[in-house]
Amino acid sequence: MSLNRHLFFIVMLWFCFPITTAIAQQGFGNTAKSSEPSEFGNETLEWRREYGSGEGLRTFSAMTIDHDDQSVILAGLSQMPEITKLFTRGGNPIEQLIVQKVDFFGNTLWIKPFSLSTTEPNRARSVSLMKDDSYLVSGYHGGLTSMQNYAVKIDEEGKELWKRRVGGVGDFVYYIKETPDNGFMAVGKKSYKGQKVSWLAKFNSDMRMIGESLYEDTAIGNLKFLEDSSFYSVAINYNPETGQKSLSLSKFSVTGEQQWQTFSMPNIELGQRRLQLSHVEYLDNHILVAGSAIDFSRGDKQNASMWLTKLNYKGEMLWSRTFEHDGEVGSFRYLAENNKGNTIAGAMRLQEAFGAEVETYFVTLSSEGVLLTKTFLGDDTISDIEFFDDGTVLITGERELNVKKYRSGRSYASSFSYVERKKLESGSK
């Protein structure tokens, strides 16, 4: 993980060792700038389901595939009257966290609401399949300073088994994962001495916290656990002495002791630009890491580049690709790789520097990071991308409708969510 300064630790058989870092070293491996798609591909739509248009708000923010039966578990929020049971004093429904299960063909098996708060909108942030075939959903309610995070465990039929508050008021939890020792790990941000710092917390099987650790000058991307509950972490480190950021991979023992840390750099001439991390995807034999490099000193234009790198589990860079979009801020989101390891799918999001206009693309890349296809999706917001075992890809997103702008500068838009399964077929240019 990018762990520059270890600020705080609680000793409970976990996270009991201080962590130090070294000066970032230049990475190695194959590096290249990307070009426009070298191949054209065909996308065959297998099915598409839309939710929320004309029936009340329904938005999905996370999903996972149960590969045993190829069903899909979606987590999000809803204001649909037939689902939502809570209402404000004015008679409007409160947005509730929902979990919906659909089969391989998109047919709804069940949909269930869950209330974290009876007075504020409830939202989901992640959902995952547990070893006992139940589902773990992380959600929250409240704003930036009043946010409260929760973990909800439900069975295969959507029945709530337990609900636990995670962290304190104002904390920000990115996701919660089950660990091989039947516990859990939360990754997020926590307030410390007036600033937000990275936060890792370990929980027992009943979701009771047994240890936590805070890290300054770091952006933790994701974790991968091994069978002995040791884990890897990819992150961005900030060096306050040089003012630069670098990419790191760290290995930790089950007790939270850092065993090693390596540094590398994407194929980007940084100059005044700083690295930003947008997505980390751990696969069996390698890791895909995506982000951007942005210069905030250029006035109305940010000198921004998107980058995508492939690391092995020693932290060695296998290749690095750069995607230039002058005057636009870009990032890859929700990368996934098929089980043959020859196709990478993801969402590319571009936004004008200091502007509001957003463009979203569904992209496919080769195993070497070469851009193959690029499909324009307007200003859709993609929530997740996953591959089925047969190589078809599942996408969930949201599209705005009927945007209304007011003289005050505020705008309002209705929207609907969609889930679609596509078959990808590539051909020569």
% residues in beta strands = over 45%
In the sheet with the most strands, the strands line up as: 1-15-14-13-12
What does the largest sheet look like? 5 strands, antiparallel
Number of strands: 30
Shape, per Cα inertia axes: globular
Q: What are the segments in which pLDDT stays under 50 over at least 5 consecutive residues?
A: 1-40
The SSE string, one letter per element, is: EEEEEEEEEEEEEEEEEEEEEEEEEEEEEE
Overall structural class, as computed from helix and strand content, comes to: mainly beta
Number of helices: 0
Explain what you see.
The chain has 429 residues and is mainly β. It has a domain at 267-387. The protein is 0% helix and 59% strand. The protein contains no helices and 30 strands. The protein has strands at residues 5-9, 30-33, 40-51, 58-66, 71-78, 96-102, 108-114, 122-129, 135-141, 148-154, 160-166, 172-178, 184-192, 195-203, 209-216, 218-225, 231-239, 244-252, 258-264, 274-282, 287-294, 305-311, 317-324, 328-337, 343-352, 358-366, 371-376, 381-387, 393-405, 411-427. A hairpin with a 4-residue loop joins strand 4 and strand 5. The radius of gyration is 21 Å and the shape is globular. 39% of the residues are buried. The model is unreliable at 1-40 (pLDDT under 50). InterPro entries: Quinoprotein_ADH-like_sf.
